[in-house]
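Why do we care about 3D structure at all? Because function follows from shape, and shape follows, mostly, from sequence. That is the central idea of this module. The next example makes it concrete: a single protein chain, its amino acid sequence, and then its structure expressed as tokens.
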Amino acid sequence: MKKLLLLSSVLLFGAMNAQTTFGLKAGYANSKLSGEGSEDMDLEGVALSNKTKSGFFVGAFVEHKFNDKVALQGEIQYANLGGQMEGKVDVTEEGQNVKFTLVDKLNFNQIVVPVSVKYFATPQFAVYAGPSVSFNAGYKSDIKIKNANFPTQSVSEEINYLEANQDETMKEYLKSTSFNIFFGAEYQFYKSFSVDARYSVGLTNYEKEETEGSSTKMNYFQIGLGYRFK
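And the structure:
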């Protein structure tokens, strides 16, 4: 990990020459938690199923070209990743029907440091792959009730309690550092602008206390717009 960070620092702040370009990028991220025992979850008696979560990323990058075909790129990003659980409730008790959808967003706010080798098939189009390391910048729950047949304000205190309790649980039981591998492609379409898309595969089990039959990893997709300073 130290070698990866050192390499990224050198790329981001190192040698200034005609073959090195700096830039900014931002875009959309779609992530999902996966692993043994993570497909289903129970929250206060509500059965939840695993879904993808929409998020975003912003960051900076530096690209150093060795020749017309091969380059090394380092980045640093702030990314809103994580997962989402969702469940529907439709019960009748003492003649009264209660119906709602519970959405539980698990926000994994992270500082992501990717390093990749790029191959330029053409001067405008490149494919790339490499490893990345991520650092926790805050685990945060966002629980909402939708499509309810009762005033949701009546359960706002209970929702706040569940969020706070879940935040403490994630902080206590989830790791602060994780590793991924990723691959993607980039296309420079107009002057200094480019668009790129990548898919990252989680290698780290986020659970601090690993138990048999239980693991939590995260995979995510990103698509973004970049701008190079020339």
